[in-house]
Specification:
five-stranded antiparallel sheet, globular
Length: 104
Amino acid sequence: MIARWWRGWTRADEIDRYVEYVEETGVNALSATSGNLGVYVLTRVEGDRAEIVVVSLWESLEHVRAFAGDDLGRAVFYPEDDRFLVDRDWRVSHYEVPAARSVR
């Protein structure tokens, strides 16, 4: 299993609207791609800025390629990202997931 990790920052008062936008665009696109095992959106507010982290889980890097294209490390952005983001990672990180357990 592969975890894909991306971070961006927006104004704190925009975080709820940006999360909605990310759900409509990136989360929908990620989860609709074959081989996607799940998507998590994490947020935290620090002062007047908010950080957003999007983590997606994949069966393999080949499945990630179906979403991201040949440059796996390039972050995927959508038209309104520029309106919300005050800073962003332009590259994403990929991690092998050697162990995982879901607890309910």
